[in-house]
Design brief:
Layout: E1 14-15, E2 18-20, H1 27-31, H2 36-43, E3 49-53, E4 59-63, H3 64-80, E5 88-92, H4 97-108, E6 112-116, H5 125-139, E7 143-146, H6 151-155, E8 164-166, H7 167-171, E9 188-193, E10 203-207, H8 208-221, E11 230-233, H9 240-252, E12 255-259, H10 261-266, H11 269-277, E13 282-285, H12 287-299, E14 311-314, H13 321-332, E15 341-346, E16 353-356, E17 365-369, H14 370-375, E18 389-393, E19 397-398, E20 403-407, E21 420-425, E22 432-433, H15 437-443, E23 444-445, E24 448-458, E25 461-467, E26 472-474, E27 477-479, H16 481-488, E28 494-502, E29 509-515, H17 522-537, E30 543-547, H18 562-570, E31 576-581
Parallel strand pairs: 3-12, 5-6, 5-7, 7-8, 11-12, 11-13, 13-14, 14-15, 29-30
Antiparallel strand pairs: 1-2, 2-20, 3-4, 9-10, 10-22, 15-16, 16-19, 17-18, 20-21, 21-24, 23-24, 24-25, 26-27, 28-29, 30-31
Length: about 575
């Protein structure tokens, strides 16, 4: 049964164990276009556009008309460099006007953009350059477009067969590409690399129609309004959540305010300041950002107006009740309505959105027995605050067009509150992993994507518990690494980065932590972490290891790579400064 024809309302219904999100909007009907360059040309006829801001909120306005004409010039420059429709073009730059011109120029040229992250830490530089070259080879990139400041650096580290072009160089081309748009809705439109949290990052192949279908779904579910909506984002555009936010806002012709992730991280308060100054109606960020926002509002009191916010989407990492409660408490003093906070669930293989809460619906938490999750795979409700309680965010119902099913290891559909693998069917489901048919066949079966995520259904919607590959099994109990990491990072002296993982072939669990600057001795820190884990979770890990700062590997989007951390630990390559056995 095709997902678009299953039901015609947005109400939750269950058919053969699946929950369906109803009929999905077509991009032609929402945007009047089904390709990215067509959507940009239509938005160019409006007065709206993008405002790029730095950490001090200094502005660079980019009307959509300017973005469209600049994209045509970039497309002409790419053609001069030998790029033809269908070629893959990699982009390595942070969010800036030149990068946006180049990105949309690649689409205007009929080529396929592949956005790669910049190096974030000097210690990761050799690995990052090696990974960039691996990805360039994997997608057979025809050219590489880089931020002007990185041109010389990247030229000496990339295969000479691929021209390295600067964003400024392309934007300065005088002639615009003439002629019709050389792309069709079902042509390949983007290659999105996965985060690589549980293995090597893979390139998700998405068509223009799939990109704009998911963008249209987001516009509908978030109730965007062309006249008054303002979306503020600092998310990196190599991340699916950041990219689809921009495509949705541009295609719908609303005002976008964009900031680079580096600007946000150097001054986190600037995000909240932008929400206030530009009267933002929506924003989306991972959970940690709301914790930083709450801390900033508490420690740096200032005049803010958050009353226009209708959606504060929270996704991309585990959603913590305490974090959002602090954000709501701090924001409420500035007009923030608690119901604006909206949990979301999605993944690159589905383009992005799978489920999200309804606008104006109150934030819902499901308090379940940790013991029930560990021993029986059942989410049994318990009283909030009880010693055995684990608070999990309810991510709402599937978005229009998406079907969700929870299955066991044999693929059998499970009932409400039974924990299993989240499986997704969607009109925006990927074409497959680029050049990896076997990997595609392992995760897509009969039109259903096996996400590798654990979750369950309940009356209020979908709840996500963790990742199958990260599950730690000890004595027949399923231990969630997120629980151990969440408790460990709250211990005084521990940085907000931690990795819990199992040792293959054993029932041993390791918890690795990094100390803050000036913390007590590493042995004392390891002892405090071990004691806290034993007291709060009932089962202590086999050992706690304290490692040097920046030793725990993370993805380009900041997610902990538990598997890679385990490999480094077992190979003796993790910078361990103290170790405590149970």
């Amino acid at each position: 049964m095709s997902p678009q024809g299953q039901i015609t309302t947005g109400e939750e219904q269950v058919m053969s164990g699946a929950v369906h999100g109803g009929e999905y909007p077509r991009p032609e009907g929402v945007f009047g276009a089904a390709t990215v360059p067509e959507a940009l040309e239509r938005s160019a006829g409006t007065a709206a556009g993008i405002t790029v801001v730095d950490r001090h909120l200094e502005e660079t306005p980019l009307p959509y008309a300017l973005l469209a004409s600049s994209a045509r010039r970039v497309a002409a420059g790419l053609a001069e460099a030998g790029v033809v429709p269908g070629d893959r073009v990699a982009l390595i730059s942070s969010t800036s006007p030149g990068f946006l011109f180049s990105l949309f120029g690649v689409w205007r040229a009929g080529a396929v953009p592949v956005i790669l992250p910049l190096p974030h830490r000097l210690s990761d530089l050799p690995d990052t350059v090696a990974e960039i070259n691996r990805r360039l080879d994997h997608v057979d990139a025809r050219a590489v477009v880089v931020a002007d400041a990185f041109g010389d650096f990247m030229s000496g580290r990339i295969d000479a067969r691929r021209p390295v072009l600067g964003c400024g160089e392309l934007s300065a081309v005088r002639e615009e590409l003439a002629g019709p748009i050389a792309v069709a809705p079902d042509d390949l439109g983007y290659l999105q690399f996965t985060s690589g949290t549980t293995g090597a990052a893979r390139a998700v192949a998405l068509t223009h129609r799939q990109l704009l279908t998911n963008a249209a779904v987001c516009c509908e579910r978030l109730r965007l309004d062309r006249e008054r909506s303002v979306h503020v984002s600092w998310l990196p555009l190599y991340h699916d959540m950041g990219l689809i936010s921009v495509l949705a806002g541009m295609s719908y012709g609303i005002r976008l305010v964009l900031q680079s992730p580096e600007a946000f991280l150097s001054r986190p308060d600037s995000w909240v300041d932008a929400l206030s100054r530009y009267r933002a109606t929506s924003t989306v960020a991972p959970n940690f950002a709301y914790g930083l926002a709450a801390r900033g509002m508490r420690l740096a009191p200032r005049e803010l107006d958050l009353s226009a916010l209708e959606v504060c989407g929270d996704g991309a990492e585990p959603i913590r009740a305490a974090t959002l409660e602090r954000f709501v408490a701090a924001g409420s003093r500035h007009g923030l309505r608690p119901q604006a906070v909206t949990p979301m669930y999605g993944l690159a293989e589905a383009t992005l959105a799978v489920a999200m809460g309804e606008v104006d619906a109150p934030l819902a938490w499901d308090h379940v027995s940790r013991e029930g999750l560990q021993t029986g795979g059942v989410a049994r409700p318990v009283a909030p605050g009880s010693p055995d309680s684990r608070a999990l965010a309810v991510c709402g119902h599937p978005v229009p067009g998406v079907s969700v099913q929870i299955t066991d290891e044999e693929g059998r559909a499970l009932g409400d509150r039974e924990v299993g693998e989240i499986c997704v069917r969607s009109p925006a489901l990927m074409e497959g992993y680029w050049a990896e048919p076997e990997a595609t066949a392992r995760v897509v079966r009969d039109g259903w994507l096996r996400t590798g995520d654990l979750g369950y259904r309940m009356a209020d919607g979908l709840v996500v518990c963790g990742r199958i590959k990260d599950m730690i099994i000890v004595g027949g109990r399923n231990l969630y690494p997120e629980d151990y990491e969440h408790v460990a990072v709250k211990v005084e002296g521990v940085r907000p980065v931690c990795a819990a993982f199992a040792v293959p072939g054993t029932e041993r669990m390791i918890v690795a932590v990094e100390p803050v600057k000036g913390a007590d001795g590493p042995e004392e820190l390891a002892a405090r972490v071990m004691t806290r884990l034993r007291e709060q979770l009932g089962h202590a890990p086999d050992r706690v290891v304290v490692v040097a700062k920046d030793s725990i590997p993370r993805t380009s989007s900041g997610k902990v790579q538990r598997g890679r951390c385990r490999e480094r630990y077992l190979a003796g390559e993790l910078s361990v400064v103290a170790e405590l056995a149970r």
